[in-house]
Every structure is written in structure tokens, then in C-alpha cells.
Design brief:
Radius of gyration: 17 Å
Structural class: mainly alpha
Number of domains: 1
Number of strands: 0
Order of helices and strands: HHHHHHHH
Strand content: under 5%
Low-confidence stretches: 6-26
Number of helices: 8
Mean pLDDT: 83
Helix content: over 70%
Shape: globular
């Protein structure tokens, strides 16, 4: 996949601040903060990578549909938080997402595409709400949201790249082990959330 060769360049381009005569500090800080939020929390990282792994296991069209649908629905969850709509159990939803997505990878679950998309979209709401609730004071909500959506897409791409190991028998075993580790991490996150 030639697209993955350009992922490091995309990360660098997204993190570089452009020198302008009228720098919008809120926008620049908002994007960087939004971009760093998903990659700074292990609970988000493992779930995002799991989406990519599962999509790769399922093959086309899930390999691109799940990682595209997740950030789109996640943005809806972020918007709900930005406008002040509460979502009870956000941390529990994030932990359960790691458990169930890890289980989907370890068992190589193959539900209908609509069911797989609905599962990932459901959990995207929780992840998005958590990101939106962390908007720093004075930051531009739209630019902040763009940052966390792009970072999430990057984590999905990492999961897809790793998931391509599914082509070999040893790779399938490695992915199943990774799914087990993701599920175990989810149990830890659930325990840490006090459930």
C-alpha cells in the first residue's frame, strides 16, 4: 500500500505551524491539542488501532469503511460534548470498546458489514465525546476537532498496516495475540474507571 509511505509526511505537515503575520494562537493550539489528544491516551490508541486491525481482517470494503466511518461518527460525539450534551459512562464506553474490538480481532469475528460498522460507530460516539469534552479554554472547537479526527485516522492507518500481516499464518496468530492484548487493556481501563 503506497499510501502508508506518506503517513509520516502527513504527520509532520499537520504538526508544523505556518508563520503568518496574524497568527491565530487559539486555532494553532487547538489543532495541536486536538491532534495530540487521541495519541496521548493509551485507551484511545488501542481502540483506534483495533478498528484498523479488524478492518484489515475483514478485508474490502471494511478495511476502509470502518476507519472512515469511525472518525466521522466520532466528530458527532465531539460536537455533542462541545455543545454541552452530557454522555453518561463515557470512560466505561471507551473501555468496553477496547474489550469488544479486541475480542473481534482475537476471534476474527466476521459479522455482516453493517453490523461491524454499527459496532464501531457506536463506540465512536464515546471516544468523540471524550475528545470534545477536553477542549482547552480559548481553543477553536472546529480546528481542535479536525486535529483529533486526523490523529484518529492516523491511528487507524497504523492498525490497517499492522493488520496486513493477516495474509500469512504467523501474521494471523500475531494479530490474534494483539487482539487479546487490546481486550486485556480494555479490562484494565474498565477496572480503572471504577466499574
Amino acid at each position: 500500500m503506497r499510501l502508508f509511505r506518506y503517513l509520516p509526511l502527513l504527520v509532520v505537515v499537520c504538526c508544523v505551524q505556518v508563520a503568518e503575520a496574524h497568527v491565530q494562537h487559539g486555532a494553532a493550539a487547538g489543532f495541536i491539542t486536538g491532534f495530540s489528544h487521541p495519541i496521548s491516551g493509551l485507551d484511545h490508541v488501542v481502540a483506534m488501532i483495533a478498528v484498523g486491525l479488524w478492518g484489515a481482517q475483514l478485508g474490502a470494503p471494511a478495511i476502509w469503511l470502518l476507519p472512515v466511518a469511525f472518525p466521522m461518527v466520532m466528530a458527532v460525539g465531539g460536537t455533542l460534548a462541545l455543545i454541552g450534551v452530557p454522555l453518561p459512562g463515557t470512560e466505561i464506553g471507551i473501555a468496553v470498546s477496547a474489550i469488544l474490538l479486541g475480542c473481534a480481532v482475537i476471534t476474527e469475528a466476521r459479522p455482516p458489514l453493517a453490523v461491524a460498522a454499527a459496532i464501531t460507530a457506536f463506540f465512536a460516539i464515546f471516544h468523540g465525546h471524550a475528545h470534545g469534552a477536553e477542549l482547552p479554554p480559548g481553543a477553536d472547537g472546529l480546528v481542535y476537532s479536525l486535529g483529533f479526527v486526523i490523529a484518529t485516522g492516523g491511528l487507524h492507518a497504523v492498525g490497517i498496516a499492522i493488520g496486513l500481516l493477516n495474509r500469512w499464518m504467523w501474521g494471523r496468530r500475531a494479530l490474534r495475540l494483539a487482539g487479546g492484548a487490546i481486550g486485556a487493556a480494555g479490562v484494565f481501563f474498565l477496572w480503572r474507571a471504577g466499574f
